[in-house]
């Protein structure tokens, strides 16, 4: 691959800043689904199963788009390699803008099916962005800084998922509500604004001169990547991880509204939802430091603690909650840090440990009430943090020429975010919302199995963290 940047070329600070904004926006919009679900559920008087069609359409678009891309690549060659990364990202931004704009007619006509169609198109746009932007960030600059750039870009993705419940929840549940009543129009202006943001990003990206990267390597024929057992198991790992993470995020607002849990309104619970996604951001920063091979033990511990406190401070600054209301979260942050120390920077071992911790946390959520159930479900985000990066890197370890093919198969497994929330929604309708959390329990049990399997098969292989989310 010709990815060398000549010394004469300028620094790409502005292009990289533009791309980090892109990462931020798709994290923000993805997490907006968690705010949309209770809004649309109340607006259209939906069952839990029907409300989970939001995630089904959005994440189902990832699967559909990835399959189409994979088949196209197999038959006619890699599309991004033909049109270029920049054009691929522009196409993704324009598709996402169309998806956001379609929320306007959906709100005007107040038709649930139109909302779902808009979400599907929005998801297709994000699929193109994922395929083009992730590898491009790693290529944009010196090779030795690739991991650092991707970590930083994905950190902005996590920042987007953290503040989306605050800003999005305020706009939908409060600012654009009419006399306290939630209407379909509450989604009009926010998504028109998002349309404008995506179009502005597209214009900025079009105007900026970016280096071109292409590969002359021929793709291997067939599905040779599936000869690797750890990849096949990893595909299921991504399926269950994304499914579990989306299941919890999708139901948190409704869960906290239950009288036996906290009985708090949506306008308040959106702040606690930000803690769930913010926990993932904390864990990703800590994980990036923990998995770094260039720091001494004492420095690593100091940096991890400092990073955790700094990110917690950022979250505290943006949520509309007092310190006493969120101080309990610090206890679980300490448990998270201890988990990293026990994991000893071994990705497979840390993955298995964190999955088992989440099994315990969600079990407690199911069988207790009040604030205990609230804090255990919210704290699962802390231990979700390194799952995507560790599952992904463990799955493609040692694939050689089949790495790209394996990566595309793993992206298809984001389908878990479409299927499993529907399963939990059906259980919530039949067994009750609290007992429906048994779905993520089974997901984490599989992830723990995958972690132990890789620990035995691959050993304590050291892989670079690509901390981030779906």
From TrEMBL:
Report TM segments: 12-29, 49-76, 88-106, 112-134, 155-177, 189-206, 233-253, 273-291, 303-319, 325-343, 350-367, 373-396, 408-427, 433-454
Q: Which GO CC annotations does the UniProt entry carry?
A: plasma membrane
Task: Say which domain of life the source belongs to.
Answer: Bacteria
Identify its membrane topology class. Multi-pass membrane protein
* Single GO molecular function: transmembrane transporter activity
Question: Which Gene3D superfamilies would you find in this protein's record?
Answer: MFS general substrate transporter like domains
User: Could you tell me what this protein is called?
Assistant: Sugar MFS transporter
Q: Which organism is it from?
A: Pedobacter cryophilus
Q: What is its main location?
A: membrane
Protein location = Cell inner membrane
UniProt KW keywords: Cell membrane, Membrane, Transmembrane, Transmembrane helix
Pfam entry (one):
MFS_1
